[in-house]
Specification:
By secondary structure, the chain is α/β, with parallel strands linked by helices. The protein has 12 helices and 7 strands. It has helices at residues 31-37, 64-78, 90-101, 123-139, 141-152, 155-160, 162-174, 179-191, 196-201, 221-230, 245-248, 250-263; strands at 3-6, 16-20, 42-46, 82-88, 108-115, 207-212, 234-238. A 7-stranded mixed beta sheet has the order 1-3-2-4-5-6-7, with helices on both faces. The radius of gyration is 17 Å and the shape is globular.
Length: 267
């Protein structure tokens, strides 16, 4: 499994921070955040299993547990015993599931930030995923990839960055994973629900729930619901940026992320 550790630029004994991406699964998703976060942390990024053209096939009953277990095995391999965790959408659910796994582990999650995530799948998001699945299974990978910007970015941002988006789509198509893997990961994401065991595992973990008010894919209310279910922490609602604000509003998001660490006396 491909992973990278980006060393902290200010101190050798800095804590570790794990970045977990959304459905695409690639560590490159976080490039706009690396420099900012490396001022305070050793930043670990990784590619999720099954996300490349040459990936092994995932099982049909693949679950969020498997994605969290992948992170746990990586942490043990790298001898990282405590860490902060930031996850985007699916990556946020991985962090929530990982917290549950750590109940029987000496490893310690020092904080958890989830971006545009949910407690249970919203019917609107379900409909969006159904549309993407139909495109993938009936029209193929290119239709699936070309449509995804509509779910991720604000309309004006797409208009201004259409050449950049097209180039990124072309690169994604060159390394598109097996369709079975995309469907398995989508199914795991759609089936995930916040459970009492998750809430219990996170009761003493500093929490940050971040959402974008203009997110078309995940209604902002779902982050409110998740925050209410978790019962503590900080809720940050950003006005702009849509679902992939990591890309569309990196300065605003980076400031929001680091401000949480200051507010929580982590930095």
């Amino acid at each position: 499994m491909k992973h990278s550790i980006h060393p902290c630029s200010s101190q050798e004994d800095a804590p570790y921070l794990i970045l977990s991406s959304g459905l695409g699964g690639h560590s490159s998703f976080w490039l706009p955040q690396i420099d900012t976060l490396c001022q305070h942390f050793h930043v670990l990024t990784y590619d999720q299993e099954g996300c490349h053209q040459n990936s092994s096939l995932l099982s049909a009953n693949y679950q969020m547990f498997n994605m969290a277990e992948q992170v746990l095995l990586l942490l043990k391999q790298l001898n990282i015993h405590e860490f902060h965790f930031i996850g985007h959408a699916l990556g946020g659910m991985i962090g929530i599931e990982l917290a549950k796994l750590l109940q029987n582990s000496p490893l310690d999650m020092l904080s958890l930030t989830v971006i545009n995530a949910w407690d249970v799948l919203d019917p609107h998001t379900h409909k969006c995923f159904d549309a993407r699945i139909a495109l993938l299974t009936t029209a193929g990978a290119e239709a699936y990839v070309r449509a995804q910007a509509l779910f991720l970015y604000p309309p004006a941002w797409i208009s201004y960055h259409h050449k950049q988006i097209n180039n990124a789509e072309n690169q994604q198509l060159k390394d598109f994973p097996p369709i079975q893997n995309v469907l398995a990961r989508l199914n795991a994401l759609m089936q995930f629900q916040l459970q009492p065991l998750h809430i219990e595992a996170l009761q003493n973990v500093p929490l940050h729930v971040v959402a974008n008010n203009d997110d078309f894919l995940v209604p902002v209310q779902k982050s409110h619901d998740l925050f209410k279910q978790l019962g503590h922490g900080q809720l940050s609602i950003l006005t702009t940026g849509a679902h992939a604000s990591t890309v569309t509003e990196p300065q605003l998001l980076n400031h929001t992320l680091t401000q949480f660490f200051y507010n929580s006396r982590i930095l």
